[in-house]
Each structure stands twice: as structure tokens, then as C-alpha cells.
Design the sequence.
């Protein structure tokens, strides 16, 4: 009579974790921005933006006081720095203090039962309590950011004060932005100054008598401008997850082949309490000559707004790995994952801002649900020699409930206080067709209504070479059915971000106490996001693309003993440029030359 043999094993694993990170708990000012210049009244220049090829730096056809574009090339004023004669005056000076805290309590109970050599059952529950809070203090709310605005008397404006030339240092740019032509059309010198030094000087200067704080706030009496709480910045999200789970794994023999299986089942229940201060817009004032395109937005008494939301999803997973031979593995994985929407998109309040002819508002959606992703992965891996392998990995992801931004016009029953036309020294600065009429804001909000598919394949190859050397190459191709159409001017386009092709290659050495790696990374064109800085487009959120780039890095490590390691790294040896642009490659947004960074250090472990 055959015997049944059981190898019984039980394990119980309770775990409790708590973290409580805080950002800027002492409330130190963490952003100071000083804006100075020679204004646009008597010193106005006439020119437009010239954008040529994708590797040509865009430039203004004229810059500097009273410069006028000639049409044959860039025209620069002899005094474009404003130093001779000295004409620089003060403008806006925003101060900002951000504070946030995120307390996380997490508990897990897990038990494992192993009834035999080939079977393991794991079950338990997880609890997560995440309490997130943030708030911002600034000088926008009380209008203290424009205490000395107007660019000073040399601009032809009676507001603002002249800033001492001793605060400024001339910087020569030299050769910069390698790989991009048109540098000669840009200024080869810039002014450097410390905004804290600027603030210290302005504190000793009288403010213009026509300046006034936002209604309800006291007048400035000297010293560092007071920052006040921005009501709409007070945000709170308490999110609790309850997740019972069970996972069973079993190994089979199928026609002599080893089959490893693992089935997981998790149900995640989420309870959310979302709150924030919401202050209604009560009045809008036009700033006037000090800053003609600016408004001053006054709000009423803030009120606490709170909503609750609950949802639950079944999140299964299945992993299969079949070994037809001892050196060939085929695997199939399926999983459903859940990702909560960003906290900043769910706070129940609306904020207003913008400039003349470019009014904006942001209205969040506290009822946003998480987006779900069904992930299908297949892998074929051949371990053809010890340490050498080749792998092919096709994958498919189906994302639903994607949080999508949209823009809609919202009319507020406050008449636009800006004039229908504003003239500065014979130059029309703007015309406002909506003057005297109820103000219309382009409001951005979010909703769960779209889905997207991602298809891709990655390939990896590792080959060990003689004398401790080796090669590792990886390439990934990705495609989505939700791409941004650059030629479509319809507002509120939806596109999936972060989808792009990439290739990485590494030459490594590892022998004895030495390790060294030289890695080249290539990243193809990538849609980083929707929404540019000062994004006031009539066509909704504008795209931000990252241009293709190649980066070469080097790292070495020498292990002295079990406690000490000496390392050296050199990043961006090719001096690659970070380049982002809008709908088309000649619409440059950012060019950043990070240069090459070198580091050397010692790691001690005891």
C-alpha cells in the first residue's frame, strides 16, 4: 500500500511599521524669487521669437532697451544689460514657504502553511493608514509680492525703485549648449544677483503710496514681507486600505517538464476622507501701471470642505513558469494593479489666477477613483551558459479609469476691471475684449473617463567575457494607442505619458576586489506630460516632449575589506543636453546643460 508523506510547516509573521516624514517643519522660507529689469515703457523693444530647426536655439529677433528687429538678424541694444547707463529697477519679489507631513501606519499579518515539498499557502491581511497634509504660506495672498513693483523711474514708470548696481555681477556664458546652433543670437553675458541681498536692500526703501494690500490684510510696516496662509493650499487626505489576501504556489511535472505556478488573490478596500480650505473669489482689481497685465484676486473667509469616498477592487495575479529544458524558461504573468490618483487632484476647492486675456482656474475632483491596469507579460529566457543568458519579454498593459485633465470655460459674476486698451508711451500693451464683462476663466479639472493600451517588447542579453569582463545589453520598444496629436487643435486631448523607446548597454568588469561599469543609455522621444509652465493655451493642456538623448556614465568600486569600499563615478561623460519642447521640436521649452559630474568617496560599513 503506498504511503503519503507530508512535510508540514507553519509560519506566522506579524509586522507593524510607522513612518512620519515632514518637509520644512520649522517653516523656513524655501523659495525667494527676485524680478528686476528695465521695464517695457520707455525701454520697450520690438521683436519676435524666431524658432528654426530642432537643433537651433530659438531667440528673440531684438532684445535690450529700444532695440528694433531689422529682419536680417538679431538686433541687440548696446546696453542690453542695463548697466551703462544704469537703468535697472525693482519689480515683483515673491516669497513662498511650503510645509507638508505624511504619516503612514502599516500593519501586516501573514501566515504560511507548507503541507508538502511542492505546495505553499500564504494568507493574511494588510492595513495601511496614510495621513497626508500640506499647506503653503506666500506673499501672493496679501499682495505683498508687488511692494516694489514697476521697474523704477528709468523705465518711465513712477512705481518701483532703482536697485544698486553693486548687487549685480556680470557672467560670461562662453561656449554653451553643445550640439545646438544659433548660440550667437543669444546674449553672451547675463547678470547674476542674490535675491536675499535684493530683499535686504528693498526692505530699506519706501514703497509706492499707490500700493495696497489685498482686502482684509494690514499694510506693510517694514522688514521681511509677511507671508500669509494661502487658503486653497491647505489640503488633507486620509486614506485607509484594508487588504485581505491569499496566495498559493505549487510545482508540477508536465511531461517531464517543471511547471511552477503561483495564484494570488487580493481584495483591496479603500476609505478616503478628503478635505481642504476653500475660499470664494469675492473681487478682482486691476493692478494698474505697476504691473498692467496683473490682477489682484481677493477671496472671502475660507471654509473647510470635506468629502468621503470608498471603493474596492479585486486584484488577482497569476504566475506560470515552465522549464522545457534545464536552461530554457518560459513564463507568463498576469496581474491587476491599482494606483491612487495624485492627492493634488482630489482636494475639493477651486483656485483662481492668471493675467489679462489669460485667466485660469483649477478645480479638483474629490471623487476621482484610482486607475486600474491589467498587465500581461510573457518571458522567454535562455540560460545558455553559466552567467550568460538571453531574454525576450513581450508585454501588454490595459489601463482604465485614467485621471484625465480637461479645460472648460467658467464665468464668474465679477466684471473684468482691466481697461479695454492699455497704452504705454505710444505702444499698445494689450487690448481686452472682455473689459467690463463677467470674467471668464479657463478652468482645469480632472475625471475618470478614458482608457489606454500599451504594447511593447524588451530584449536583454548578457555575455561574460574572459578576464572578468562582461557585456549587458537591453532594449525596449513601447507603443500606445493614446498618443497626443500635435496637429489636432481640439481642446482636452488625452494622451498616455511616459511611453518611449530606450536602449542600454553596459561593459562591466568584476574580479577580485575590483568592480567597474561603463554604461551608455539612449532614450527616444518621450511625452513627459500635458501642461506647460504658464500654460494658458486656448487648446487645453499643451504637451511637453523630451528630446532623444544619449548619456555615458562610468562607475568603479574597490573593496578594501569587509568594512571599507572606495568608489569613483563619472556621469554624463558625453555632456548630453536635456531638451524639452512643445508640439514641434523647434518649440524649445528648456535646454539644460548639466555638464559632467565626478564624485569620489569611501563607504564604511560596520
Sequence:
Amino acid at each position: 500500500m503506498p504511503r503519503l508523506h507530508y512535510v508540514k510547516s507553519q509560519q506566522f509573521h506579524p509586522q507593524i511599521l510607522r513612518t512620519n516624514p515632514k518637509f520644512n517643519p520649522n517653516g523656513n522660507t524655501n523659495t525667494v524669487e527676485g524680478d528686476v529689469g528695465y521695464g517695457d515703457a520707455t525701454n520697450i523693444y520690438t521683436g519676435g521669437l524666431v524658432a528654426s530647426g530642432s537643433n537651433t536655439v530659438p531667440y528673440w529677433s531684438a532684445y535690450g532697451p529700444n532695440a528694433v528687429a531689422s529682419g536680417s538678424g538679431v538686433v541687440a541694444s548696446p546696453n542690453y544689460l542695463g548697466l551703462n547707463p544704469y537703468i535697472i529697477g525693482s519689480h515683483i519679489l515673491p516669497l513662498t514657504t511650503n510645509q507638508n507631513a505624511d504619516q503612514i501606519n502599516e500593519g501586516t499579518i501573514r501566515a504560511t502553511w507548507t503541507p508538502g515539498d511542492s505546495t505553499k499557502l500564504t494568507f493574511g491581511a494588510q492595513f495601511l493608514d496614510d495621513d497626508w497634509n500640506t499647506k503653503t504660506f506666500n506673499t501672493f495672498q496679501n499682495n505683498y509680492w508687488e511692494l516694489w513693483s514697476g521697474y523704477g523711474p528709468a523705465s518711465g514708470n513712477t512705481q518701483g525703485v532703482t536697485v544698486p548696481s553693486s548687487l549685480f555681477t556680470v557672467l560670461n556664458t562662453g561656449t554653451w549648449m553643445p550640439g545646438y546652433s544659433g548660440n550667437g543670437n543669444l546674449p553672451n553675458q547675463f547678470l547674476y544677483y542674490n535675491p536675499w541681498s535684493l530683499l535686504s536692500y528693498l526692505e530699506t526703501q519706501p514703497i509706492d503710496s499707490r500700493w495696497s494690500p489685498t482686502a482684509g490684510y494690514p499694510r506693510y510696516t517694514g522688514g521681511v514681507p509677511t507671508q500669509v496662509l494661502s487658503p486653497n493650499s491647505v489640503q488633507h487626505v486620509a486614506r485607509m486600505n484594508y487588504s485581505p489576501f491569499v496566495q498559493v504556489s505549487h510545482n508540477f511535472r508536465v511531461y517531464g517538464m517543471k511547471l511552477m505556478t503561483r495564484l494570488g488573490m487580493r481584495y483591496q478596500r479603500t476609505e478616503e476622507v478628503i478635505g481642504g480650505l476653500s475660499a470664494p473669489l469675492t473681487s478682482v482689481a486691476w493692478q494698474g501701471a505697476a504691473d498692467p497685465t496683473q490682477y489682484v484676486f481677493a477671496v472671502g473667509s475660507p471654509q473647510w470642505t470635506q468629502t468621503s469616498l470608498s471603493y474596492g477592487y479585486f486584484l488577482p495575479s497569476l504566475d506560470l513558469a515552465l522549464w522545457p529544458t534545464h536552461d530554457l524558461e518560459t513564463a507568463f504573468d498576469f496581474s491587476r494593479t491599482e494606483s491612487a490618483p495624485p492627492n493634488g487632484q482630489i482636494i475639493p476647492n477651486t483656485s483662481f489666477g492668471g493675467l489679462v486675456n489669460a485667466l485660469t482656474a483649477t478645480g479638483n475632483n474629490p471623487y476621482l477613483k484610482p486607475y486600474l491596469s491589467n498587465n500581461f507579460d510573457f518571458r522567454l529566457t535562455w540560460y545558455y551558459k553559466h552567467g550568460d543568458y538571453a531574454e525576450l519579454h513581450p508585454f501588454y498593459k490595459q489601463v482604465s479609469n485614467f485621471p484625465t485633465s480637461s479645460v472648460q470655460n467658467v464665468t464668474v459674476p465679477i466684471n473684468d476691471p482691466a481697461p479695454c486698451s492699455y497704452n504705454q508711451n505710444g505702444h499698445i500693451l494689450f487690448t481686452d475684449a472682455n473689459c467690463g464683462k463677467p470674467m471668464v476663466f479657463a478652468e482645469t479639472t480632472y475625471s475618470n473617463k478614458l482608457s489606454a493600451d500599451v504594447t511593447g517588447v524588451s530584449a536583454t542579453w548578457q555575455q561574460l567575457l574572459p578576464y572578468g569582463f562582461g557585456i549587458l545589453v537591453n532594449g525596449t520598444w513601447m507603443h500606445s494607442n493614446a498618443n497626443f496629436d500635435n496637429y489636432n487643435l481640439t481642446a482636452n486631448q488625452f494622451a498616455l505619458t511616459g511611453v518611449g523607446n530606450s536602449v542600454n548597454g553596459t561593459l562591466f568588469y568584476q574580479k577580485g576586489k575590483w568592480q567597474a561599469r561603463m554604461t551608455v543609455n539612449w532614450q527616444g522621444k518621450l511625452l513627459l506630460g500635458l501642461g506647460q509652465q504658464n500654460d494658458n493655451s486656448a487648446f487645453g493642456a499643451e504637451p511637453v516632449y523630451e528630446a532623444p538623448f544619449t548619456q555615458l556614465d562610468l562607475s568603479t568600486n574597490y573593496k578594501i575589506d569587509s568594512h571599507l569600499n572606495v568608489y569613483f563615478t563619472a556621469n554624463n561623460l558625453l555632456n548630453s543636453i536635456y531638451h524639452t519642447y512643445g508640439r514641434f521640436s523647434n518649440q524649445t521649452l528648456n535646454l539644460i546643460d548639466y555638464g559632467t559630474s565626478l564624485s569620489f568617496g569611501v563607504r564604511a560599513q560596520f
User: Anything to note?
Assistant: The first helix runs from residue 195 to 202. Residues 326 and 546 are 43 Å apart (CA to CA). The helical segments are 195-202.
